[in-house]
């Protein structure tokens, strides 16, 4: 895959580096960005449109705290190679599925599903298992230690992070208007002068109400960050590996906190094991440009964190079938499916 970053202009790099977070929550945010970087609103809008067009960014919007809006889980299936593309397309066709990857493992199709609540999520996974003809293994989040898929492009080496306390996923109590806004926001902000006004119209609200809600979500930690969401493959981070370990439950929180301090770790969390099918409970993600570099990085991390002797696996992604925002419905829908997940 072509590395878009190699041809980026200084303005493109600056927009991506500085506005993955701290996006202005004001009626005319692109004008505010232009003022901050001594550019023009037209240049900012044109540049972001070009970055979206070439795949460098997927959207401008919110990264919600895991489990804050609806119920979600990481799931996996073991799919015969000859069926993989067809089944991946079936899985990706579900709007509740936000990420869908082929990974190097017997369990070769991994996806994230989010629904209105636990019952609705059960129905989604039951539908997928029935349609595809393969059991779906679910690994719901138990504790998060670090979750932030931001990427520094102009300065790749960051200071080591402070230890993070394990946080359990807690659903946010959203009223009907907030749920409508969360659903409308899944597609991201439009590249127009007053995007929050347009977003408000989609959600049936007023602009000032939308700005207040988003700011409140950020203050409450429901939204982890609001800004430009980049696509790491297109920016040259083509080597994407999920490292997993089987760690004693009494020690996993300490190991997770150590993983969270590692600057190359973009995700670190604990998930449920699947008895007799999946023994691992501690996960981290590392992204890089070359496979060998990522494997070496993970080995170094394991040594520093004290995981080198633990049963482990390293699952590199092969293909990305889907990568978008989670789209939980604003209300539960009745599908008539009996939840029965393997």
Topology:
Blueprint: H1 10-18, H2 29-36, H3 41-53, E1 57-64, E2 71-77, H4 84-92, E3 97-103, E4 109-115, H5 118-132, E5 137-139, E6 141-147, H6 176-185, H7 195-203, H8 207-220, E7 223-230, E8 239-245, H9 252-260, E9 265-271, E10 282-288, H10 291-305, E11 312-323
Antiparallel strand pairs: 1-7, 2-4, 2-5, 3-4, 3-11, 6-9, 8-10, 8-11, 9-10
Q: Got a strand count?
A: 11
Helix content: 25-40%
The helix tally amounts to 10
Instruction: Give the percentage of residues in beta strands.
Output: 15-25%
SS-derived structural category: alpha+beta
The major β-sheet equals:
9 strands, antiparallel
Q: Give helix and strand order, one letter per element, not per position.
A: HHHEEHEEHEEHHHEEHEEHE
Extract low-pLDDT stretches: 155-163, 334-342
Based on CA atoms alone, the radius of gyration comes out at 20 Å
Strand ordering within the main sheet: 5-2-4-3-11-8-10-9-6
Q: In one word, what is the shape?
A: globular
């Amino acid at each position: 895959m072509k590395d878009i970053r190699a041809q980026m202009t200084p303005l493109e790099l600056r927009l991506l580096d500085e506005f993955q977070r701290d996006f202005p929550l004001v009626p005319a945010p692109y004008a505010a960005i232009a003022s901050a970087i001594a550019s023009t609103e037209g240049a900012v809008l044109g540049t972001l449109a070009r970055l979206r067009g070439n795949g460098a960014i997927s959207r401008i919007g919110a990264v919600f705290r895991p489990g804050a809006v609806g119920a979600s889980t990481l799931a996996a299936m073991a799919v015969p190679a000859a069926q993989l593309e067809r089944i991946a397309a079936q899985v990706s066709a579900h709007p509740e599925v936000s990420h869908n990857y082929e990974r190097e493992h017997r369990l070769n199709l991994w996806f994230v599903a989010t629904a209105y609540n636990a019952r609705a999520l059960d129905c989604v996974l039951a539908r997928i298992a029935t349609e595809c003809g393969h059991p779906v293994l679910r690994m719901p989040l138990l504790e998060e230690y670090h979750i932030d898929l931001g990427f520094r492009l102009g300065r790749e080496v960051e200071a080591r992070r402070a230890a993070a306390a394990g946080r359990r996923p807690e659903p946010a109590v959203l009223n009907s208007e907030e749920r409508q806004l969360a659903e409308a926001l899944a597609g991201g902000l439009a590249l127009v002068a007053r995007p929050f006004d347009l977003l408000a119209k989609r959600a049936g609200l007023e602009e000032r109400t939308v700005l207040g809600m988003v700011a409140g979500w950020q203050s409450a930690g429901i939204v982890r960050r609001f800004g430009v969401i980049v696509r790491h493959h297109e920016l040259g981070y083509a080597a994407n590996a999920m490292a997993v370990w089987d760690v004693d439950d009494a020690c996993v929180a300490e190991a997770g906190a150590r993983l969270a301090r590692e600057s190359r770790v973009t995700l670190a969390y604990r998930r449920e094991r699947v008895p007799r099918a999946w023994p691992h409970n501690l996960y981290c993600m590392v992204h890089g440009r070359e496979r060998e570099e990522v494997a070496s990085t993970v080995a170094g991390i394991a040594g520093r964190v004290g995981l080198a002797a633990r049963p482990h696996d390293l699952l590199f992604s092969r293909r990305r079938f889907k990568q978008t925002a989670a789209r939980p419905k604003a209300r539960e829908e009745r599908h008539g499916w009996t939840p029965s997940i393997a």
